[in-house]
């Protein structure tokens, strides 16, 4: 038996998220079918992050156990011949049998893209949150720094989360502007349901003057979801990397 670790990139536009569902096409189901086709087995595929419908990934990680004779470092090549073009296996390797893509993870890094321009983009319409209104970028940069550190992020947690605690450690958070694209980069030991999207939506509110940058610590401490900004749309979110 071999435990195979995959690093996966995908455009989430045409999928109902990562997690396999009944009567919906998902990334997990699509990759699993490709694995089963190659191995002739009914493999269990485990992903590091349950990305939502429309969310993209550059560095999703998954693992499965197999008795296949395909060399572990060649699985990526074989899988890419049977997967659709919007899902690519970037690498494959054999790992310890105890490795678990989700439970072995130590942290994750996400990117959220905000297209801030008077004119929408035909190319980025499914890959960035379009905000045509003028934003105070400096205020947003000031606000994002307050998310770093260890906090209870109840105010940035969507309902429906099954996490036992809402305390998380954000190791880095930054906002940069490249032409008309804003890039929110955020890394931490874990994230609550829709947490990055709520942070992104809150930063847009700061940029619009609806929330003061200096009020962010109070919103975090207040633990009240109603005080934070709206949940930004899923198509601006990218899972960049999973740390082990």
Structural commentary:
The longest helix is centred in the C-terminal third of the chain and has 14 residues, at 195-208. The protein has helices at residues 27-39, 75-80, 137-144, 195-208, 216-222, and strands at residues 2-10, 46-47, 56-66, 87-95, 107-116, 129-131, 149-152, 167-178, 181-188, 237-243. It has five helices and ten strands. It has two domains: 2-95, 2-Layer Sandwich (Alpha-Beta Plaits); 110-237, 2-Layer Sandwich (Alpha-Beta Plaits). Helices cover 20% and strands 31% of the residues. Helix 3 (137-144) runs antiparallel to helix 4. With 244 residues, it is an alpha+beta fold. The two termini are 22 Å apart. Strands 1, 2, 3, 4, 5, 6, 7, 8, 9 and 10 form a ten-stranded mixed sheet that branches.
